[in-house]
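The protein record passed on below.

***
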Amino acid sequence: MKKVATRFAPSPTGALHIGGVRTALFNWLYSKNQKGYFYLRIEDTDKERSKDEYKDQIIQSLEWIGINYDGKEYTQSEKIEDHIKVANELLKNGHAYKCYCSSEEIEEQKKRARQKKIPYIYDRKWRDKNETDTPKNIKPVIRFKSKIDGKSVLKDLVQGDVEIDNNTIEDFVILRNDGTPTYNLSASVDDHQMNMTHIIRGDDHKINTFKQIQIYEAMKWDIPSFAHIPLIHTIEGKKLSKRDQASTLNDYSKIGIMPDALRNYLLRLGWSYKDKEIFTLEESIKFFNLDGIGKSPSKLDMSRILSMNEYYIKNIDEDDLFNQLSEYCKLYKNEIKSDKKDKIKKSLIFLKNKAKTLEDIFNNGQYIIRDEVNFNKDDVKLIDDKARKVISDFKDQFEKIDLPSREILEPIVNGLIKSHNTNFKGVGQPLRIVLTGSKFGPGIYDIILSLGKEEVKKRLSAKIT
């Protein structure tokens, strides 16, 4: 029995789309679950639109989310000669023919179909014509001779049996008149040469699958198993596209979504195992199967992604969280200075409170990261004479402390509440503003202990502007 082999085959004509990432994930998990192989194929035959920067982004995105492919990436454009060779074999054995229709003729056929409001299907004009009738001034395309009669049934591993009338599949072009192969030919040849056992892809490829199976049958190749995954829709129920906001992994990485959280979310987007929500990487591989994939489209829900990310922020090891925060700051903000790293690391326990993203943690820790306090102008207006007296009295008592602790600070704050005839907010808010620049932020004791004695003294003495 052949070892399971799957592949992910993106085109480097744009940044990798979130739907593509989920397809790659499902292929990777299935092959790992079956102790098989997972390959990356770059389908770069569209020379005008294919760019190396997109290829690099695809590879980096897969690496970021933890999807590792076997061997080196397979590059489709390097195999063009093999594709052309198969087209000529199909021509030779009577499964393909040369079509000399001009572009004007084809356009006229399409126009008539539009007028009748029916799908365009090439009229097979040259299917059975004699080569002696060929016009001399037209370069032909090569078309595959699709089945005309009967029905075909695809035994889809997700959708079940899918039946189609053969006459609805046109004699599709496999070689253009400039000699270049089309998608359905190239993909079929590549999948055969790469020994693919399972093709797992979006259900917008179903019609392509029927075409490709006919190529397999004509070449007497072993036909792989097919699984078509329902597409991802926006929350409004529209098909997700590259133009949608937050459609690439970079969009998520920039706001501080962590790879493990996004991978867990994508795993559960259209797949389930019992009522389990959180999966470690090992559990994802152990439990993944095609039976758990639903038949309806899934909706991409940003609130669920943030909720999943929040769960990971709260529950992962804090060393790991700090490393991810540092990497995030290096990429998208300013690198955390070495003299601030220890303070941030020790403060994660409260900086991560209510944080849904790494960006939230970064924002919560701004008062530590910045050397100078950046005052919110509206909040500064809250510092009246009474508030200034609270700050001054606290400073006098704080300077007498050798080593600040919550146990030492609480009686000082409670004493100020009493002596100034106020409440906790009346003391905490002025102190928070003078120490962080804002009335919002962590608890006042956490702020003082995270900054350290010398920094607190310095900020209490600074002029509020």
Summary: The two ends are 75 Å apart (CA to CA). The CA atoms of residues 224 and 242 lie 29 Å apart.
